[in-house]
Design goal:
Layout lengths: L22 H19 L2 H8 L4 H30 L1 H24 L20 H33 L7 H56 L15 H14 L41 H4 L15 H18 L2 H7 L2 H9 L1 E2 L1 E3 L2 E2 L6 H27 L7 H32 L10 E4 L4 H25 L7 H28 L17 H25 L1 H4 L6 H4 L13
Keywords: Membrane, Transmembrane, Transmembrane helix
Organism: Solanum verrucosum
Membrane topology: Multi-pass membrane protein
C-alpha cells in the first residue's frame, strides 16, 4: 500500500541486491506470519470463555475491537512506512512486534497465574479475572495489532521493490508473476491456519496450540533478517503525503469560507506541480473550490511558484481528490453490513462445536475449521467468474469485466443477507433439537444434527466477499483520480475496521438490551437458552435495510456509470490493482 504523490522514492542502487534471490525470505516471512496470526484468531473465543470466564457476547465484542484495531493500524502503518520508517524497517519492526505479542499470549497458556481457572459446569460463581491477567492478555493483542498494521500493508510492496526494474522490458510480467505467487502463498497460508493450526489447538491443547504459532513467527522474523543484506531498501520520503493533502484541502476551504472571489476565472486557480489537465475545478461541492483560489500571488506563492502555506492554498488536484473521496463515502458506507455479517463467526463456532462434525466415521472436522468452506467458495467463485462468466457476460453487458462493479457489489450484499437468514433458520432448528433432546442446561452436549448444515452459509459468505470486495475496489479505481489509486485498498481496509467496531457495539448492545429485566440474553454463553437465531434475524433485517440504502446510493452514481464523470478520463484503460486488495 503506497500513499504518495509527487516525486519518486529513493532506492539504494546496487546491482548485487534485490532480485528473485530475496523472494524466499519475503514470502516465507509473510506466509509464517499469516499462518501464526490467523491460527490464533480462529479459536480465540473459546480460550476467552474458558480461561477468562467471558461470556460469548463479551468475548465476541473484544475480538471485534481487536480486529478493528489491527485493520485500522494498517493505514497508519502504510503511511509511516512510506514517509518515515521505510518499508524494510516497517516489516522488520512489525514482525518483531507480532512475535512479542504471540510470546505473551503463549505465556498466558503456560503460566497458570496469568489466567483464571476454568469454570466448571457445577459452579454457580466462577473465579474472577484480575486486572493484571487482563492487562497481560490485552497487551498481547496490542502487540499483534501493531505488528499486523505494519507487516500486512508493507510486505507485498516491499517484495515488489526487490523486483522492479523499469529498464527491463519484462518488468511488468515479472511483477505480475510475483503478485500471483504472493497471493497464492497467502491463500495456502490461510488454509493451513484454518486446518492444521486449529487441529493442533483442538487436539493438543492451548500450550502447544499457542506455542506452534509463536515458533512459526520466530522463524518468520529470523528468515526476514537473514535476507537483510540482499534487500533493496527504499528510503522513506518526506514529500507531500496524499492523506495530509486531503486534510489541507479541507482546512484551506474552511479558512476561505467567507471569500468573495468569483469561482469561474481559470487563471486564478493554483496548480502545483504543473498539471497536464488545465480544466477548472468541477462544479460539484463548489465550496471546496475556494481552497485552490489564488487571492494574492505575492502572499500566497513562493518565488518558485509553490504555495507559501499549503494549509491555506491547495492545488486543483488536491481539491478534486477530496471531492472524489467525498463522493465515494456513501457507497463506502454500504459495505459495513457485509463485514458485520462476517464478524459473527464466533457464534457460528459455538454452534458447530455442539453438532456432529464427522465427514467420515473416523474423521471429525474441528469447529473452527469450517471457515475453510468460505475460503474454498471464494477461490472457486473468483476462478469461475474470471474464466467462465466474464467471457459470456461481456458479450451481453458490454462490460469488459462481465458485470459492472456496482452490480457485483449488490450481488455480494444479497449473498451476505441470504447467508445470515440461512444461519437464523439453521440455528432455530438446532436449538429446538437441543431442547427436545434435554440439553437446554448443557450447552456443551452434542446435538443429533450434522454441522454440514452450515456449509451453505459459509459458501454464500465466500461468494459475498468475492463479489463485493473485488467490485468495491474496482469501483473506487474508476471513481478516483490516478493519484489516489492506493486509496481504494485503504478504504477497503478501513471499512473492515469500522465494520468490526460496529459489530462489537452491536453485539454489546443486543446483549444488554435482551438481558434487561433478568431475562436470558439472546447472546447467552448457553446458546441453548439464548436466541442466537433472533440475533441473526436482526442482522438479516439490517442487511435488507442496508441493501435498500445501497439502491438509493446507486442513484447517486448514475452519472458516473454513463461516463459523464469529470474523473472518468483518469480511469480509462486502467486495470484494477488486485494486489492492493485487503487480504482477509
Amino acid at each position: 500500500m503506497v500513499l504518495k504523490m509527487g516525486t519518486e522514492s529513493q532506492v539504494e542502487e546496487n546491482p548485487r541486491k534485490g532480485g528473485l534471490r530475496t523472494m524466499p525470505f519475503i514470502i516465507v516471512n509473510e506466509s509464517f506470519e499469516r499462518v501464526a496470526s490467523f491460527g490464533l484468531q480462529l479459536t480465540m473465543i473459546i480460550y476467552l470463555m474458558t480461561y477468562y470466564n467471558m461470556s460469548a457476547a463479551t468475548g465476541t465484542s473484544i475480538l471485534g475491537l481487536w480486529g478493528a484495531l489491527s485493520n485500522g493500524l494498517a493505514l497508519f502503518g502504510a503511511i509511516t512506512a512510506d514517509f518515515y520508517l521505510g518499508r524494510y524497517r516497517a516489516v522488520a519492526y512489525g514482525s518483531i512486534s507480532t512475535l512479542i505479542g504471540m510470546i505473551i499470549l503463549w505465556l498466558t497458556a503456560m503460566i497458570p497465574q496469568l489466567k483464571s481457572s476454568p469454570c466448571s459446569q457445577n459452579q454457580h460463581v466462577c473465579n474472577g479475572v484480575t486486572t493484571l491477567q487482563l492487562a497481560v492478555l490485552f497487551s498481547s493483542f496490542g502487540f499483534m495489532s501493531i505488528g499486523a498494521g505494519f507487516v500486512r500493508p508493507c510486505s507485498i510492496i516491499f517484495g515488489a521493490d526487490q523486483l522492479e526494474n523499469k529498464k527491463n522490458p519484462n518488468n511488468q510480467r515479472i511483477l505480475e508473476s510475483y503478485f500471483n505467487w504472493y497471493n497464492a502463498s497467502s491463500g495456502i497460508s490461510t488454509i493451513l491456519a484454518v486446518t492444521v493450526i486449529v487441529y493442533i489447538q483442538d487436539n493438543y491443547g492451548w500450550k502447544i496450540g499457542f506455542g506452534v504459532p509463536a515458533i512459526l513467527m520466530f522463524l518468520s522474523v529470523l528468515m526476514f533478517q537473514i535476507g537483510s543484506p540482499l534487500y533493496i531498501k527504499v528510503k522513506a520520503k518526506t514529500t507531500e503525503n496524499l492523506v495530509i493533502g486531503l486534510f489541507q484541502a479541507a482546512v484551506a476551504s474552511f479558512r476561505k469560507r467567507n471569500t468573495c472571489r468569483p469561482l469561474s476565472d481559470c487563471d486564478e486557480f493554483y496548480r502545483w506541480p504543473l498539471e497536464s489537465d488545465v480544466l477548472p475545478p468541477s462544479k460539484d461541492f463548489r465550496c471546496l473550490n475556494r481552497a485552490c483560489i489564488i487571492e494574492d500571488p505575492q502572499r500566497d506563492l513562493n518565488p518558485d511558484g509553490s504555495a507559501s502555506n499549503p494549509w491555506n492554498l491547495c492545488s486543483v488536484e488536491q481539491v478534486e481528490s477530496l471531492k472524489a473521496l467525498i463522493k465515494a463515502l456513501p457507497m463506502w458506507s454500504t459495505c459495513f453490513m457485509i463485514f458485520v455479517d462476517m464478524n459473527v463467526f464466533s457464534f457460528s463456532l459455538l454452534q458447530t462445536k455442539t453438532m456432529d462434525r464427522h465427514i467420515f466415521p473416523h474423521f471429525e472436522v474441528p469447529a473452527a475449521s469450517f471457515s475453510v468452506f468460505m475460503i474454498a467458495a471464494l477461490t472457486i467463485w473468483i476462478a469461475f467468474y474470471d474464466r467462465v462468466l466474464v467471457p459470456l457476460l461481456s458479450k451481453y453487458t458490454g462490460q469488459p469485466r462481465g458485470l459492472s462493479p456496482i452490480t457485483r457489489m449488490g450481488i455480494g450484499l444479497i449473498s451476505s443477507g441470504m447467508s445470515i437468514a440461512l444461519s437464523a433458520i439453521t440455528e432455530s432448528i438446532r436449538r429446538q433439537r437441543a431442547i427436545e433432546e434435554g440439553h437446554e442446561d448443557n450447552p456443551n452436549s452434542l446435538v443429533n444434527m450434522s454441522a454440514m448444515w452450515f456449509v451453505p452459509q459459509y459458501a454464500l459468505l465466500g461468494v459475498a466477499e468475492a463479489t463485493h470486495a473485488v467490485g468495491q475496489v474496482e469501483f473506487f479505481y474508476d471513481l478516483f483520480p490516478k493519484s489516489m489509486s492506493s486509496i481504494a485498498s485503504s478504504m477497503y481496509t478501513v471499512g473492515t475496521a469500522v465494520s468490526s467496531l460496529i459489530g462489537s457495539i452491536l453485539v454489546s448492545g443486543v446483549d444488554w438490551l435482551s438481558s434487561t429485566g433478568g431475562k436470558t440474553s439472546w447472546l447467552s454463553s448457553n446458546i441453548n437458552r439464548g436466541h442466537i437465531d433472533y440475533f441473526f434475524w436482526l442482522l438479516s433485517f439490517l442487511s435488507f435495510i442496508n441493501f435498500l440504502y445501497f439502491l438509493v446510493v446507486c442513484r447517486f452514481y448514475e452519472s458516473l456509470n454513463d461516463g459523464s464523470s469529470r474523473l472518468s478520463h483518469v480511469a480509462e484503460d486502467k486495470e484494477c490493482d488486485y494486489r492492493l486488495l485487503h487480504e482477509s
